[in-house]
Prior knowledge:
Layout: H1 3-7, E1 15-20, E2 26-32, H2 35-40, H3 53-58, E3 61-66, H4 70-83, E4 97-103, E5 110-114, E6 123-129, H5 131-144, H6 156-164, H7 172-183, H8 188-204, H9 208-225, E7 238-244, E8 247-254, E9 257-265, H10 272-276, H11 280-298
Antiparallel strand pairs: 1-2, 1-3, 4-5, 4-6, 7-8, 8-9
Amino acid sequence: MSARSSAARLPHEPGVYRFRDRRGQILYLGRATDLRSRVQSYWGDLRDRRHLTRMVARIARIEAVACDSVHEAAWLERNLLEAGLPPWNRTHGVETSIYIVVDPRPRTAGVRTSHVARFDGVVGFGPYLGGTRARQAISGLHRAFPLSYTRDRLTGAERDIAASRGIGPRSRERLAAAVIAALDGTDAGAVREELTAARDRAAAALNFELAARIQEELAAFAWVTSVQRVTVEGGGDQDVCGWADGLAVTFAIRGGRLIGWEQRECGRSAVARGSAGTPPEWAEFARRNAELAAALIRG
Length: 299
């Protein structure tokens, strides 16, 4: 099966893909919101990617990992490129790695970004990729649950807004808990409901600029709360293995980051130990990506 034909077997899911030449050398690694559409585009009009024309002619095999979110695909691409840059890749990635901090302390209450994972006296979440998305998500969190208006010292304008919303120091614990529940996934729906209602009110009032801004906050909040397991703060080391139709896929996780991805043809018995040692939370991920690998090679 040609590489172009195997591209049609990719799922319409987010993920990471890489191209190999006939000698098995990795030519290029990229990420996609829709794997099939993105990879098939290399055999169409390349437009601003015309410099890749010579590379496309050398593609002999496509390999791919299907991810559970675009955010997860972005992290996986970054990790793999940092581990090794293929010849046709130009950079390791441009998104900023960032954390979101929820501060419940009286003098500094609020939600903010941090570029370091130091959370003394505060609650930290992340890491996330994309400083702009993180700040938009924080804007949405503030719109839904304005924790910063419960600080001990507010400006006159802030006091007026807080009073109009019935918010004060006694609201601090409740609002901090709501923001934390939104970011840890316990109750992300509350933020989505608040922002959706605010967006619809703005649109009904013909304030389309505000409605668009809130829609961006909704998208950013979805980004930071989507499934993302390939980069975990404080994570450990482990190998994740899946097998399907005579083909094994192994992922190397070091320090909480998935940094290696290999696949090889072998019998099930050859990876029995690796499969048995795969943590339950990774088993489905490994299985479906082994099935994808087999589909791309076997046809």
